[in-house]
């Protein structure tokens, strides 16, 4: 009887350890996403403020591009943050190969985006 209770306690303890490990992993993923969003927000805000200050210093008091350049900046920054995250988390051993694998597709994506927006952006 006592032996059976000991096995049951060990199984319960083992299951609790598994649940705790799972929750810690989920918490780590949540913190990682919070970090990514925070970095994105800080960089976007800094770039937007710098752009506004430069416009004012050059005597331009109205935004000539409307809000389209804001969206362009946000998407290009999102592409850059995604490339950085891929560079830091990709499980490829040669560092140069890891950067090439992440860099080339995201640069092409940014180039294609700007080409498409360049065609429509000057309306």
Briefly say what this structure is.
With 123 residues, this protein is mostly helical.
How are the secondary structure elements laid out?
Elements: H1 2-57, H2 68-89, H3 95-121
Helix pairs in contact: 1-2, 2-3
Explain how this protein is built.
The chain is mostly helical and 123 residues long. The chain contains three helices and no strands. It has helices at 2-57, 68-89, 95-121. α1 crosses α2 and α2 runs antiparallel to α3. The radius of gyration is 24 Å and the shape is elongated. The N and C termini lie far apart (82 Å). The relative contact order is 0.07. The mean pLDDT is 82.
The assigned structural class equals mainly alpha
Number of helices: 3
The main sheet comes to: none
> How far apart are the first and last residues' alpha carbons, in Å?
82 Å
* Beta-strand residue fraction: under 5%
Give the low-confidence spans: none
Q: What does the overall shape look like?
A: elongated
Order of helices and strands: HHH
Q: Nearest-angstrom radius of gyration?
A: 24 Å
Mean pLDDT: 82
Which percent bin holds the helix content?
over 70%
List how many beta strands DSSP finds: 0
């Amino acid at each position: 009887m006592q032996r059976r209770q000991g096995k049951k306690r060990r199984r319960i303890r083992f299951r609790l350890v598994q649940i705790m490990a799972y929750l810690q992993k989920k918490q780590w993923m949540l913190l990682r996403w919070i970090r990514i969003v925070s970095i994105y927000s800080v960089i976007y805000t800094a770039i937007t403020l710098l752009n506004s200050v430069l416009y004012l210093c050059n005597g331009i008091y109205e935004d000539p591009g409307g809000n389209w350049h804001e969206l362009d900046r946000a998407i290009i920054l999102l592409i850059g943050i995604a490339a950085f995250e891929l560079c830091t988390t990709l499980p490829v051993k040669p560092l140069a190969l890891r950067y090439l694998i992440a860099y080339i597709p995201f640069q092409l994506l940014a180039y294609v985006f700007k080409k498409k927006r360049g065609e429509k952006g000057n309306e």
